[in-house]
Amino acid sequence: MIVGANFENKGSQAKLFVVIDELRKRFSDCEVYYAHNDEQLDGALYRFGKISFTKKEQSQVLRSNPLSGLTKMFRKKDDTTSADIDASSLVPQMDLMIDVSEHSLSADNSMADIEYYLNNIKIAKKNKIPMIIMPQSFGPFEFSVDNMYILGDMKDILFYPKAIFTREQFGYDELMGYFGLDNLRPATDMLLIDDSFEMTNVFSRFYRPEVPEIPEGNNVAIIPNALCLSKKYNDNTLDMYNKIFEALKIAGKNVYIVCQASSDMESCKELAEDFSPYGNIHLIERELDSVELNMFLKKFELIISSHFATCVEAYRNYIPALLLGHGEKYKDITELLGQEDFYFDILSEECNNYDIVDALNVLLKDLDLSKTRIQTRMINIRTKSCFEVFDELKW
Fold first, then answer.
1. DSSP label at 233?
2. Residue-level pLDDT at 210
3. Is 242 exposed, middle or buried (0-12, 13-18, 19+ CB in 10 A)?
4. CA distance 122 to 154
5. Dihedral of alpha carbons 268, 270, 273, 276, sign
6. What is the 3-state secondary structure (H, E, C) of 275-333?
7. SS3 state at 345
8. pTM recorded for the entire structure
9. Residue 204: HSE in the Cβ half-sphere, 13 Å Cα cutoff
10. What percent of the chain is modeled with pLDDT above 70?
11. Which of 10, 28, 99, 350 could share a disulfide with 290, CB 3.0–4.6 Å?
């Protein structure tokens, strides 16, 4: 049972797919269930079951008797039914629970979301289900006085998972400093590791990726984030994109604006419309799934992204990237790959749009140098994988 993913964000979707792929490479006959938060999916396209796992249903499972459903439930292998399976009867029968969240355990999130995250671990512990927390971000844990109680819950339950993979040193230090856990394992982002995805492990025979066709050469992808275009940051961000589009126009590049998360589509449309006079800007109007997005990104020589997952996808394919995001994860991954000069925290008051354009021009001048540096660093990164933890399972 995999928790913590969602289909709205294609990075989260990709993590779900990669974990399923890695499981099936090792355990070809395993049944995989995606615990989702009330999403409508076409079950005919996928080789995994679906469990509706809203906060209400999670609460019911947490209160249920683990011994109440002793009769095993079976499905036909590769059954593509679109119907969800009842959580209360199925969850206690799981042999493994895997969390693929992005950054849920942090004082920056709502208490409801944090409690939902911790309740999944409590359910695993209650039902004696082994659990693995895949690479993600953690912290900070500087809660307000009213919310300090959650630290006690965290201390009581975070010892349970077999492994907690921390994606950044900051998260490792936070968890170790607050709780002294012995199940922490530093790791890079799981999408950075994977380079041999087998679609038949995840999709049914009905799935056909549809990748937009674009002319070859001189293509740059822009992946915006609606947060950076919100009212608070809008003027500065629009000025930044104006300077970026101007530099790309001078360099003779074709620019394609691509949506990674459903919540970004309106911002993508607005950018394409606002800067259409440049004449070299194109909008990909269809929302691509994670497989289509990865295949599409391979068509570009440079990616400019405000989403972490597409930065990882770029690096995985040895494509240089200009990162315009916010958070420790961007800092860590760029330092890991020798690309720290091309990351800017665009939500910081210290961020200067002229510096961003200068960095962009450096990249455009010598893309091959950045590509070679990424390839060289990736050799060391791929010598050890977080997926090796699956080989430790005694099934």
1. T
2. 96
3. middle
4. 10
5. negative
6. CHHHCCEEECCCCCCHHHHHHHHCCCCEEEECCHHHHHHHHHCCCCEEEEECCHHHHHH
7. strand
8. 0.92
9. 15
10. 94
11. 10
Residues 343 and 314: their CA atoms lie apart, in Å, by 14
Neighbours of 15 (CB within 10 A): 29
Alpha-carbon distance values, 303 to 221, 223, 254, 360 (Å): 5, 8, 12, 10
What burial class does residue 395 get, using C-beta atoms within 10 Å of its C-beta: 0-12 exposed, 13-18 middle, 19+ buried? exposed
| Average pLDDT of adjacent 10-residue blocks, the chain of 395 residues | 94 96 94 89 90 92 72 46 71 96 96 97 97 97 96 97 97 97 95 85 96 95 92 87 97 97 94 96 96 96 96 94 93 94 92 96 95 92 88 84
pLDDT score, position 67: 63
Among candidate residues 249, 255, 306, the one with its CA nearest the CA of residue 283? 255
Q: Give Cα 114 to chain centroid, integer Å.
A: 18
Scanning the chain, the segments in alpha helix (DSSP H) are 10-26, 55-63, 87-90, 111-126, 149-157, 169-179, 190-193, 234-250, 265-274, 290-297, 308-316, 328-336, 353-365, 367-381
At residue 387, the 3 state secondary structure works out as helix
Token pair listed for 235:
């003027």
pLDDT computed for residue 273 by the predictor: 96
For residue 157 the two structure tokens come to: 């339950």
